[in-house]
Design brief:
Number of helices: 3
CATH topology of the largest domain: Immunoglobulin-like
Number of domains: 2
Order of helices and strands: HHEEEEEEEEEEH
Largest sheet: 5 strands, mixed
Structural class: alpha+beta
Amino acid sequence: MFDHLWLPRAVSTYAPRIDFLFTLIFWIVAAVWVLVTLIMIVFLLRYRSRPGRKAAYIEGNPWLEAVWTLVTAAILIGLALLSRSSWAAIKEGGPPGQVFYKVNARQFNWEITYPGPDGRLGTADDVVSENDFHVPVGQVVRFTLTSKDVIHSFFVPALRLKQDAVPGREIQVWFEATRVGQYEIPCAELCGFGHSGMKGTLYVQTPADYQSWLKQFYAGNR
């Protein structure tokens, strides 16, 4: 739906919910901008300087100010209530994971830890890859995100996923990719002189291709 507009192609299950909120907020802001701009143009023309016209002091209108404030507050509260379910589903819950990883951010790389052949994280056969994040399409991916030094931000525009990586904290993140492909993982938080070069790649593969890659990856890290 949004592929032809300003947003990148959406490739996660919750991306449409994010796109809906983004587009709704955009059009609300656009409508207010048009309204304010038109009013300014009318006022500029109607009250422009003319020969013989003296400047006049105009007092504020409390009722107009109250209405403007209440309408703005109502819009913000409405957006907060509307987005609450999406926030809860994406940030506070989510479906059970099918594949699990650990992602460590550090200046200036992403370290992705894969469970070894035993299928469990935190054991001796875990393997680590820098900047290459391989996942199967159509499966719920869960990973623990943390940072080894400063605050970074794990950002995959195509997934509509953005989460800060904070030193000393382990943050649970999930997504389910819906389209095979390669997608950039830039750091979205200024983290030092090498910030602009801190980029990884998310490889979304078919389950068969993912398993084949995983076997080769294990074999190359023995």
